[in-house]
Structures are given as C-alpha cells and as structure tokens.
User: Fold these one by one.
Assistant:
Number 1:
Amino acid sequence: MHPFLSDLRRLGLYLLGWTPVVTLLTLGLGRGAAPLAAALVFGPLGFVYAFIGLSAWYVCRIAPIDRGLSPRGVGTLVVATALASAVWIIAGDMWVSLLDSMTPALQAPALFASRRLPLFVIGALLFWLAVALHYLLIAFDASRAAERRALELSLLARDAELRALRAQIDPHFLFNSLHSISALTVADPAAARRMCLLLADFLRDTLRLGASARIPLADEFRLADRFLEIERVRLGPRLQVTRDTDPSAAACLVPPLLLQPLVENAVVHGIDQLVEGGTIHIAAARAGSALTITLENPCDPDRPRRTGVGLGLDLLRQRVITQFGADGDVRVDDRPERFRVEVRIPCAS
C-alpha cells in the first residue's frame, strides 16, 4: 500500500500541499471563464488528480532507477503518463456531465471541452513531477532502512562481543575458584566443602542476575560480597573489606559481574600474597550522570611486576569500552604497595 494511504496524517499533509497546485490550475485553466464555473470544474478535478498522482509510487516500484532506467522502464513511465492523463480526462468528462445535469447555466461541458488538450498536457507534466517526487521518497525510505539495518547489525555485533567477553570472564573466575578449593581439600576438607556450597550459591545468583543486561549497583555489591565470602573461607581474618557507597549510586544500573574481576584481582594478586593480609577498600560515587567505582588493595612491594593489567582487568576494560564507548573508562594505578582501579561509566536508572 502507498505510504500516504496507510497513514491519514500523511495523506492530509499531502492534500494540503496539493492545494496551491489546485489553485494555480484553477486560475490558469479558468482564465476568461466565469470564476464560479472555473472553480466548480477545475477545483475538484485538481484534487482528483492528487489521487491519480499517487499511482506514480507503484510505477516507480516497477521501474526502479537505482541502477539506471532501462528502455523497458522508460516505456513503462511513458505508458503510465498517458494513462494517468487519459483517466483524468475521462474523470473530467464524468464530472462536467454531472455538473451540467445539476446546473446547466454553468455550461461546464463547453468550458471543459475547450481545455481538454491543455489539461492532458498538464496531466502528463504533473505525473512526471509525481514520478520524480516518488523516486525521492523511495530513495529516502531506502536510506532510512539501510541506516536501520546498519544500526541493528552494529547492536548485534556489540552484543556478540559482550557475550564473548563474558564467556571469557566466567571460566577465568571458575578456574581461580576451583584452584582455591583444590588447595583446601587437603589442608581443611570442611572449609573446602563450605567453599563449594558458597560457590554454588554464588553461581546461582550470577545465573539469575547475569541474564539481565543491567542490574542495580546494590545487587552487584551483593554479588561481590558473595565472592568475598567464598575467599574469606580460605583466607580467614587476613581478608578485610571496607565500603564507602554514595546512596544515590546504589540505584544506578550497571552490567552484571562488573565488580567481580576487580575483587578477584584484589584478592588473588593482593591480599593472598601478603602474610598479614590486608583490607580492600571499595567506593562508589555518583556525580550527575556519571558513576565512579574505585577499588584499592594493598599488595606485596616485592612482587614480580606484570607487563599488563592481567586477563581479568583487561577483559573488564574491553567490556566497558565496547558497551559504553567514550563514556566508559577503566584506569589502573599500580604502585609498589598499593593497587587501585577506577571504573567510570554512565549512571543509568
């Protein structure tokens, strides 16, 4: 169906835009005739042609010009132009016959007969104008459809990349957790069993919340607490945690498992390497539409220095950049005795 006929608002705007054409047509063809007769004969016929001109949309679909008009396409346009003018003339004969039966004094048939040839030529010109406008309309719709497809493909590609990054993060975490359980099975079987139960609860929560694209920061903190509880089975009082959270930041929506690589890195590469353990400081603050999450932990000053930030943090950085672009950032401050990570993302609510 023609896009104008499927939307009454568009059709109304189209007829409103056609009104000046009808006015010029009436004034031009009615020159030398009585104004009332000219208005009654040519005014309604002008709006009739507005609907005849809509048929150009179907002709343009049959004879597209995206690769140039073929001889067959040109022939189709010529035949359609002649038919459109002929239909207009036939509609005019029917209309003036009706007018003559109602108001013979107007002499509508004589007025129309003297303008039949100019009317046919004007109809052909108007049809070619309608063809040009419909080609522009089709090109505009094609351009919008291409942009929409490009956006959909971009979103699908980004979603696939995010899923791939999540698929790498989850096994990385499980490997470290299972390695910790393995280390406890000999030294403390009861603790290993408790750690397995806590891990099962943690995985259940991650499966439930991980199905969502975004979760409240408060829920993300609860997931982090679950993880730290698992690690506390192994490390005991050596692992301490403090948290400073802006109340307005707790409602911000964040990607699930955003904090997990941070706390995992703080435990495995920080607290676990210190005989006396240490305290992990977690803070979250909101400034306007920006959310900043920082995590700081002590670390062994004599530890072997890594050339990069590690797999977990590298995957986190890729995930933030992929999902938020220039609005997301992960900054790492690696000092001899302190390790600090700052994550900045937009605060959605």
Number 2:
Amino acid sequence: MLRAPVRQTTGFRFWSPDRQQVFQVRLDGFLFSRLTPYTEWEQWQPEARRSGDRYCSVVRPRSVVRIAVRYVNRVSIGADRVEPEDYF
C-alpha cells in the first residue's frame, strides 16, 4: 500500500507589517532577513537583535554554532554602453 508523505512543520515565518523584514524560526536556528529596498545596517540591526534575543529566550539553545551576515549586491545598469569605472 502506498502512503502519502507525512508533512511536518519545521518552523514558522513571521513578517513585519510592511513585509520588508521576515523572522524565520526553527528548533535548530533562526534567520532574520531585511528585504528590498535595503537600508543601512543601523536602521534594522536593533530589530534583528530583538528577534534573536526573543528566539533564545523561548528556545534556550545550548550553544551558538554559527552567526552570519549576507549582503546581496545588485548594480542596475540602464545604459546601452557601459564603462565599468562609472559604477565601480
């Protein structure tokens, strides 16, 4: 007899009201993301810290294995002819 795969919830995703930030939580970690349009780190770092502190107070992990920051850079070029030195 064939059985359908069992779907399990592996975590939850919480969006800010403006949908510019998302906080994803799982038992083995959490992720805080700031979406476009990107702003300066100082503007959203307090919310990232607050989210991480809240995660730790609820889940109470024994240790921290990894902390990472990832920046996604995109350069929009609107001209037919481009000189790299105009952008970099």
Number 3:
Amino acid sequence: MHPAVCPLLSLTLPALGAAAIASARPMEPRFRVLVLHEEGGHHSAYSQRARLWLDQLAATHDFAIDYLQNTDSLDAALLRRYALFIQLDYPPYGWSAQAVAAFEEYIEQGRGGWIGFHHASLLGEFDGYPMWQWFSEFLGDITYANYIATFAQATVQVEDSGHPVMQGVPASFRIEKEEWYTYNRSPRPNVQVLASVDEATYEPDSPFKMGDHPVVWTNPRVPARNLYIFMGHAPELFDNEAYTTLVRNALFWAAGRSCFTSLCSEIMNS
C-alpha cells in the first residue's frame, strides 16, 4: 500500500466506524400514539383491520403505536407518554374511575390529541352503566337514539374543505356499509362540523333519520385537538381511499404533526 494512503485511512476508518455505530442505534419515534379498542364483539373485524393499517402507517412515518383492550391501566401517567389517544370503536362507558379522570384532564389541559371512531358516541345508559355526562358534552351534548341495524349505503358530504383533516378528501364520497347512528339532537350548535351524511342517499332507505346529520366533527371549545369520525363499523372502509385519507389526515392533525408523503398536507393551525 502506498504510504500516502495510510494517513487518509487512519482518519476515515474511525469515522466510518462511528457512523456505523450511530446507524445501528434504534431511532426514537417521532411521536407515540395510544389506541384503545374492543377485543371481540361485532366491531372486532374493523378493529383488527384498523390495527394492520395503523401499524403500516406508523412504520412508514416513524411513529410508535401501543394498544389497549380495556381501561384498567389507563391513568394520567400513561397518557402523558402519548401525543395522541385514539378511541377506536370503544364505548364511553365502563371505564375505570382513574381512566375517566385521566382522560378528562388530558383533554381539558390539552396534553395531547384525540380521535374517536364510531362506537365512541354510544352515549346513554348501557349494560348497567350511567351516561358519562362530561363525555356527552364533549361530543356536542348528544345522546345515542337509534341506528340502522340492517346497514345502508350513503353519501358523505364534506362541509369544511379548508380544514386540514379534509385535505385531499373528495367533496363527497360513498360509504358502502354503515349503521348510521342517530342522536337525540344534532351536535352542530356545540361543535365544528366537517362532514355530514346525506340521508336522502340511503340505500336501502331507512326511517331512522335526523335531518341534520353530522358524521365528522371537532369540538373547538376544549384545548386538545380532537376529532370524532362516525364511520367505523366495516373493515372494508380501509379499501376506501377517501376514508383512509380522512383518517390519515386526522391522525397527524390531532397529534400536531405533519406527514411526509405527497398525499399528506402540512399541519396548519386550525
């Protein structure tokens, strides 16, 4: 070996070694998400498909996800670890007392974001549990009234296309199978509605209608970024590009982060 090369190697090899060691260290995730979902029951297929989709999204965008199937371990110390809490088809009753207190503090203090899906609006007295009044007011002062047990197709109309959650979502899109809950009243006076279902497009038609029927909304009266998305019964929803775009946008917006693909918009203050 030519002697002139040796000094160069003596400087380069340690540097390469340091770089290799650094690249071998596990990288910290950009942020952490906690997902609460039901184990078993008729929403199980949706939850399992959602987990696969969320895990792929997390791998692509370098964030971490942990899952819970009940609220036994949910407390303030646990929630402080997460930028986002997702209530994935988990009802707002039967929670432990410490979980109730921790969640209310998390939202009221703006400690992180929240997304609720479908079963999260099953507000009322169920399975011997009283209604969680705070949660009812958080979702727009509503209680559950009825649902389309035989399912119906319908068209969702975007009402606020300027909101970050709706970036890239078509002005209207079809949902092929859903239960379409109704409530005692529209939450509209107490929330910011981003999308509603056009009940005239139900196939088959149904007598269970509200007139004004929001299905995606946020409550700007609390410090935490929050979003409720009603659609969340059928696993086939994750084959619907409009739906997955909505959910992806919601996740990054509620977590206060941005995503790094051409289909993801930078998070804006809204």
Number 4:
Amino acid sequence: MKSTHFNEIYYALKIDKLLCNTSIRKNSSILLEETVKKFSNKKVIVIGNGPSLLKTDLRDIQKNRKDYVLIASNGFYLYTKENGIKADIYCVEDPFPAEDMKDEIMKYSSTRIFPFDLIHIYENFKKEITFIDFRRRLSLLKIRGFKFNSNFKKQYYWGSTVTYLSLQIAANLSPKVVFLVGCDCNYKVDLKDKIKRNTFLSSNDDVNHFSPNYFKNRRWHDPRVEEMHKAFAAANDFYNKLSIPLYNCSPGTAIKSIKKISWNEAINNY
C-alpha cells in the first residue's frame, strides 16, 4: 500500500498474517532479535540532530567504542561524512525524511529500524530493513497519553520526535546507561517557510540542526515543541520505572525533565 495510514492499520491488525503474507514480518523478527542480542548490556548514546551535537564530539568514545551503542536517525549520515563516526542503529519514522533521504540512508551500513507503515517507501530494500509495529495515529495520544514499549517483541509508539522511538529501542537493549546528545528543543520556525498545514520548506540554511544542509530544500514537519517536551518527560518517567539511568548531555538544551550532565562527565565517569 502507498499510504502510511493504511499500512499502519494493515500491520496493526495483522492483516498480512490473515493473507498469509508474513515473510517480511518473519525476517524483521529475526533481525530484531539479532539486534537485541548483539547490542545488549552496553552504554547507549541516543543521538538527536540539534546544533549542540557539534559540541559533543562523538569521536571521544573511539578508544572504547565497543562499550557503546550509537542510535541515530534521519540526517545523521551528514555527521558521519564530516566526522567518520558511524551509528550502530539507524531509525526513521517521519515520512518526509524517509522519502527525501532514502538514498543516503540506504547507503549507510548499519542496522536500520523503520516502522512497517513506511514499507512502501522502501519496497526495494525490504529484506535489508528491520521493520517494527509502530503506533502513529493508532497511539491515541490525546486519549491515553504517551505509551512506551519496554518489550522489543511488541509495538512501539509515536512521541512527536524520532528520538522517542530511539529511546524505546535503547530501553529494549537492557542498557547500562543511556545518554542523550544533540537534543536541544530550541527550534526557530519561520512561518514564511510554511507551504501547507504542518509542512515547511526552506531554501535557506537549516539553523535547527547540526548541519546547514540538513533540511535545506527538503520538507519538514512543524516540530511541535510542546509535544516534544511532554514526550521527553514521559520517557524519563518510563526510564525511572525501568531503573535505567538516563542523562541529557546536550549543551544549552531546553529539556528540563531529564537530568543534565556534561559530555565530559558522561564519557569519563560512567
């Protein structure tokens, strides 16, 4: 199907199973189990794409790289090109980056974890991707509030930012500790770039991400910062319930719900 909405329903209701069309689901299940086995019980860095990422040099972990798992998203391939640091797990859940950055993301050699409802975008790469059940519209966020997946065999939930999905994946790796970097929530939105409801497009340099080329001449959604703050607060509560240490190492971050520590403290004291 060519629609995220219909695909979400199709896989949420497991219609593929009723039609005996489960090869992609089975392949993704195997890949997901392998991912959890490979990356469990390590220190996890969940990478946001804000400007402060340039102030937390990920090259600092190179000597102890095997101790860490890096979870990145969307346009992080630009950071890799500049700095040589590769993510272990790559997430995309927003249809705009999924479509507009597809070629670059599929050239990126890491474990890729995408929602089933984006499968129509990656039709030619289905066997290379770990697809997951993802509740986007079906999360019923306004009714039930934020939900969080703490069992990798079950569905994941939308949280207004791809980082919320990354945090759920991180939690399922039984991590020793999770650090956030590049999570700023200091967005500047120019209404002149709005081309239709919830959709923006600008030919100017991107000031909201670590690279000026990040969303330059690419579509992006209204960041809905208030919802992001709620999502980070909810994630922090879930992490506390799971007894997983979670810290934000993003300089100048506007996120107040997650304990802040310096990048230097994170890599030297934990």
